[in-house]
Structures are given as structure tokens and as C-alpha cells.
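Exercise 7.
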Amino acid sequence: MAFLRDMIDKVFYGAHGEAMRYLFFGGLNVVVTWVSYALLVLLGVDLNVSNIVSWVLGVLFAFAMNKLYVFEARSMETKTVGREFVSFIGGRIFTGVVAILGFPLLYGMGLDQSLFGVDGFPAKILTSFVEIVLNYVISKYLVFYKKSRSGPSHMY
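Solution. The predicted structure, written as C-alpha cells, is:
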């Protein structure tokens, strides 16, 4: 058991721990978004409504995980949490617009090939990558910034 704890510490709290936590919780966020979408559709909710609700649930989940575990922003002062939340939502809307506008731009620039039988998938992959990187940078430097970076205060 100590080996497992040491391995988790190295991966999630080592030199690249923050990025690893971001990727881990990002993966969980995909699960939350896809499962909520699927459940809503199976319950007979309109596809567009299901898509919007699953996006909102994904953003709320991402905010909580990024605040508490990825960037370890521990302040629970209403003013601080409110500022972080508004900044986080603004960042997600911005990167969503980048993805929405970037896809047709890249598609028109020649990333219109089919991959895995899906037309334009290379453009979608590249816009998703840009969106992920921008979300990380915005969250780290504009939303959950720390005035002084001290050692990790992780919890199990």
C-alpha cells in the first residue's frame, strides 16, 4: 500500500503533478459530461437541451475539481469563490468560442480529412487540444492564481 501511495504522490504531486491532476480530472469531466448527456437523452430530454445541461454540469464539476484538487485554491470566502467562479465561466465561454470559430477555420485551411470515418476530425482534435491548453492557462493564471506558491497541501 505504501508503494501505491508513493506512486500517486510522484505522479500527482511531483514535478508535473499539477498538469497530471488537470489531465486526470479533465478525463473525469469527460465522463461526467458524456454520462449526463446520455442519461438525459435516454430519459427523453431534447438533444440540444441535453447537450446544454451536460455542458453546464461539466463546467460545474470542472470548477470544483480545479479549485480543490488541481490548483488547490483553498479559500472559501464568498468573494473569492465568486470571483473564481465568474472568471472560470468567462474562461470556458471564451475557449468555447475559440473552439467554435477555430473548427471551421482549420477545416477550411485543409484539415478537412476524414479520420476514423469522421469528416473533419483532425480539425476537431486540434481545436480540442487548443481549448484544453487555453483552459489550463486561464485557470492557472487568471482564475486560481496564488499570490505566493508554497508547497502542496494535498489531501487523500
